[in-house]
Q: What sequence folds into this?
């Protein structure tokens, strides 16, 4: 098997290294908008660098991993599925809902195989939480709380094309709200703050957000997120039912300190970022893609699953801007 990978920045380099270690992944063909960056990574991994993105397609590969900047995702996914290539695409599929729907209609029309990168589906803690909810161990679920807190804002240049805090960051929480509970979001109410660094106001984005989601069985989900959590990288999910409650992401590296006299000590080595915290999950999702390409497993996150989370993010952005609850049925769907 020969796998092409486009985009050799931070996440693309991580994916390339994971594939290079995978016994069934075969050879790698790397490309980047900056050919020199792809060449340097190829040298380190014993892979091949293509002089341009076009040559990944003309030289021939058996599957494609799209890990470039967001604005390039849609065109590459469409080009891959039209060429009969299975494709793994980092989220989001496209920067906005309209283009996302266009891409997914194309994927459906040609019968393409698309896996979208929602890595928390492969994290051990979230998987255990899902099993507990689905088994009934927690009883009737009534409250879910999620948090995603980055230790520092991304570069200002990144913000302009990120899609905003809901679409770029909290979309993972929205995916988990559905995936763990097995329920659909029916309505959202969201608010945001741009009181932090000026770059957020200048780009029309927010640095901190909160949203209340109502699920189709009446369960309430509160989601909070920020780009300015100096204590460290903090991603958690709490699920409370009538019998019991559990927490994902609560361990000896969670960057939070207790004010209680007999509370646990603060983390001596807090999580520093998403690649460190979710490294094993990222590896597992690429391994799942290899199995999918080989015909040995089901698709763990297809385009429709990714769309469901993105529609929630879109609804939250509309709710924030219009200062009102937004029902998911207001948004277009496939």
A:
């Amino acid at each position: 098997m020969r796998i092409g990978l486009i985009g050799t920045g931070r996440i693309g380099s991580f994916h390339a290294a994971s594939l290079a270690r995978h016994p069934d992944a075969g050879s790698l063909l790397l490309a980047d908008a900056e050919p020199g960056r792809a060449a340097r990574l190829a040298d380190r991994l014993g892979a091949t660098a293509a002089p341009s993105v076009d040559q990944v397609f003309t030289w021939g590969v058996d599957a494609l991993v799209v890990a470039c900047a967001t604005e390039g995702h849609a065109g590459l996914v469409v080009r891959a599925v039209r060429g009969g290539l299975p494709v793994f695409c980092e989220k989001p599929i496209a920067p906005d809902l309209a283009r996302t729907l266009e891409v997914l209609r194309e994927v459906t029309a040609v019968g393409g195989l698309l896996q979208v990168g929602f890595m928390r589906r492969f994290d051990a803690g979230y998987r255990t939480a899902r099993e507990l909810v689905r088994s009934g161990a927690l009883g009737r679920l009534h409250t879910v709380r999620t948090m995603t807190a980055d230790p520092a804002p991304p570069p200002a240049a990144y913000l302009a094309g990120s899609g905003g805090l809901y679409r770029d960051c909290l979309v993972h929480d929205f995916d988990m709200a559905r995936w763990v509970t097995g329920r659909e979001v029916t309505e959202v109410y969201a608010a945001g703050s741009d009181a932090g660094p000026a770059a957020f106001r200048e780009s029309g984005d927010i640095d901190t957000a909160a949203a209340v989601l109502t699920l189709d069985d009446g369960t309430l989900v509160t989601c909070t997120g920020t780009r300015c959590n100096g204590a460290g990288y903090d991603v958690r999910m709490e699920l409370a039912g009538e019998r019991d409650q559990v927490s994902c992401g609560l361990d000896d590296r969670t960057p939070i300190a207790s004010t209680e006299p007999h509370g646990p000590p603060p983390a001596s080595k807090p999580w520093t970022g998403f690649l460190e915290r979710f490294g094993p999950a990222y590896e597992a999702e690429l391994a799942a893609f290899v199995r999918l390409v080989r015909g040995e497993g089901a698709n763990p996150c297809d385009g429709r699953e990714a769309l469901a989370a993105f529609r929630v993010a879109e609804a939250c952005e509309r709710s924030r801007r219009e200062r009102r609850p937004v029902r998911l049925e207001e948004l277009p769907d496939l």
